[in-house]
User: Fold these one by one.
Assistant:
Number 1:
Amino acid sequence: MPISGSCHCGAVHWTYTGDPGTATACNCTICRRYGTLWMYGWVSEEIETAGKTTIYTWGDGDIEFHHCPNCGCIAYWRGCKPHKDGRTRIAVNARLANDPAAVADLPIRHFDGFETWEDQPDDGKHVRDMWF
Ligand SMILES: [Zn+2]
């Protein structure tokens, strides 16, 4: 069964089909502010989204962040342009999972998006350790 997520008010939804493998915690200037845990995939493959969103993008505009215009939750980011093969990268925010148990056991991948742009060593944490 796909993992499903929605914003707090229920206007924006995502589904993730398959095993995301990990959830990524990133320390870049935007992810550390949002506090997001990303599950990566491709538009219309692993990941489907629904609902009207507000979009935030900046800098060179490679990716756009989609928020619920009503309750403000950050639901997903998506590449502004498809890759050469026509597929578009996307990641959904695991914190919006409707059933926390569906993502609780995913290992956390720590990604240094602030300085080195590299994965950091595993520290044994899972999504369940990040809820609070
Ligand atoms: Zn909402």
Note: Residues 3-129 form a domain with the Metal Binding Protein, Guanine Nucleotide Exchange Factor; Chain A fold (CATH 2.170.150.70).
Number 2:
Amino acid sequence: MNRETVIGRLKEYGLGITQPRIEILSYLMENHVHPTVDVIYESLLENNPGLSRTTVYNTVQLLTKCGALRTLCIDESHVNIDENTMPHAHLLCRECGRIIDLPLKGISVEKASHPFTMDGNMIEEVHQYYRGLCQECRNKQNK
Ligand SMILES: [Zn+2]
Ligand SMILES: [Zn+2]
């Protein structure tokens, strides 16, 4: 991932530039796998021996609070991190455990991108979760 792109994204959200923020955000922008904090930490450790799990956790928390990342609670045993902040739906595959991006249904991306009211309530984030079998696992089963 181009360092300038990552730095630009941090600036866009009004965030200061630090090495861990650059490392973590680049990893997420390169790996669209909705990783957990542990996966991010373990993947970065090799090239960043001084990195601590707490730093990764705190950085992810901060980036999420600023809106630069989103957290998913589709899998009750893990919190997954998503760098794609455009509203979209997710499928959790019961076979391989991957979380796959899908388009939203029943609401436009434009509407879901901004707070809107529904029956007098203020909706700030739209999450659509599906559970099932991904295309790859379906193909394997059909063989
Ligand atoms: Zn699958
Ligand atoms: Zn996603």
Note: Residues 3-72 form a domain with the Arc Repressor Mutant, subunit A fold (CATH 1.10.10.10).
